[in-house]
Amino acid sequence: MNKDVTFALSSAGVGESVARGQLDRGGVAMNKNNSPTFTLDGKTIPFSAGQTIIQAAMATGVYIPHLCYNPEFKPHGSCKLCTVKADGRHTSSCTHQAQDGMVVESDTKEINDERRALLQMLFVEGNHFCPSCEKSGNCQLQATAYEMNMMSPHFDHFFPDRPLDASHPDYLLDFNRCILCSLCVRASRDVDGKNVFALSGRGIKSHLIVNAKSGRLADTGFSGEDKAAHVCPVGVILKKRVGFAIPIGSRSFDEQPISATPHPGPAAATLPPHPQGACPVGPRSNAATLPPHPTVKGA
Amino acid sequence: MNAPTRKLRVATTSLAGCFGCHMSFLDIDERLLELVQRVEFDRSPLTDIKTCGPCDIGIIEGGLCNAENVHVLREFRANCKILIALGACAVNGGLPAQRNHLSLSAILEEVYHAQHGLVDGFIPNDPELPLPLDKVHPIHEVVKVDYFIPGCPPSADAIWKVLTDLLAGREPELGHGLIHYD
User: Fold this and answer.
1) Predicted pLDDT at B55
2) Cβ neighbours of A290 (radius 10 Å)
3) Do residue A239 and residue A138 come from a single domain?
4) A261 and A163 housed in the same domain
5) How high is the pLDDT of residue A34?
């Protein structure tokens, strides 16, 4: 991340940003591939039609913080961590299509302060006790909080009561850590075709439920082969009996920050654009050919 | 480090913690000698001084699980120009806060009455014992905290970084590798 550029941008007014945008529009013709481009914190990012801002950024190796976005799935646009300012307006970069000449700000003090506040709210709404969590070091919530320099939860804790579901022989559900990203819901519905998970309730009462009369994972068709078993960015869906096979201190984000962790190029780079312009939903055959999400590898 | 005109006064305490953060603090090893050139200790397990006097820096390990913890925390806040939350328990309640979804009476029953081998057990009620709080709280929920060093425990290097940043008049900052919640 280029901090110098960031600070220069964040201190620039909207009018100046627009002026930069016009300059960049002029620069499009100089792009030898003649592909459209936008600028992200001053860096020129090429994109192909239908790509979202975050897809194009990731394809260029630029990190935009995110939690509910996973390049293998249709975006959900709910966590708001990937919020950027596109031509001066806040928008979710996982759902906003890139436009030629667009001026996007991401790594600025203003936006990172907002991201930190969102993270702090996620931390106090659940029970996130990292020292006793099997996912610690491989957790996207934790790693993103490190990235955003979150030193404290700031707000008062809710300390909710969320019992575990250890009914399944091979997998454990610890709802204390759920951030409602819906990746397991999307994976189970769109890839596994099982509809094991759903988000229920509204607003602050939203919670993850298991689609069985008993509400227990053991009474569903869930299995470790499912895509849904491998997409949780936090420590909710955990494989039993392997929790500390890799010791804390030697895990993905202990080795390097999440911003430096290589991310597979977005699916759209190799697949035709989605009709609605969003990230293509992985039909089973396509999803199987996509590279795994980096955070799943060591989990 | 340039020597200041006077030594800064530092107080430390462990509330609802395990002293692991203090052990990690001692892990700065020979750097302690460098530190005592710059600071002197007020109330701390290192000095056994019982009450906190006027200090420049107060370091709090542990969260709040009983009335005495709150009293000590307020004493520190009233006397320290800069208050630092040291470790997971001070920052978010940590392991003791994992009792928070249980009622206090159920916990006391379980510990002093229900468990095997507790025939004629009774819940301790000596007036000298501080009363437990209904829930365990991180310290920022009760007083203003100036700086936080997360970790269980924070590494000696993280503690050293924050202390040396403060002594040098810099805003403390932990980068990747030093900021850890586990």
Assistant:
1) 98
2) 17
3) yes
4) yes
5) 75
Quickly count: other Cβ atoms within 10 Å of residue A11's Cβ. 10
- Residues of chain A where predicted confidence (pLDDT) is lower than 70: 1-33, 263-299
Q: How far is CA A230 from the centre of its chain?
A: 14
- The total domain count for chain A is 2
ipTM of the complex, rounded to two decimals: 0.94
Do A220 and A141 have their domain in common?
yes
Question: Domain of A65?
Answer: 34-107
Instruction: Give residues 31 to 60 of B whose Cβ lies within 8 Å of A.
Output: none
Q: How many A×B Cβ pairs under 8 Å?
A: 75
Helix axes A140-147, A109-125, angle to 10 degrees: 140
Please tell me the distance from the alpha carbon of residue A274 to that of residue A268, in angstroms, as a whole number: 8
Report the run of H or E that residue A253 belongs to, with start and end: helix A252-255
Do A101 and A136 share a structural domain?
Answer: no
Domain contains A26: no
The pLDDT value recorded for residue A31 is 52
pLDDT value of residue B4: 52
Question: Could you tell me the two tokens for B34?
Answer: 């460098």
Q: B154 in contact with A at a CB cutoff of 8 Å? A: no
What pTM value is reported for the model?
0.85
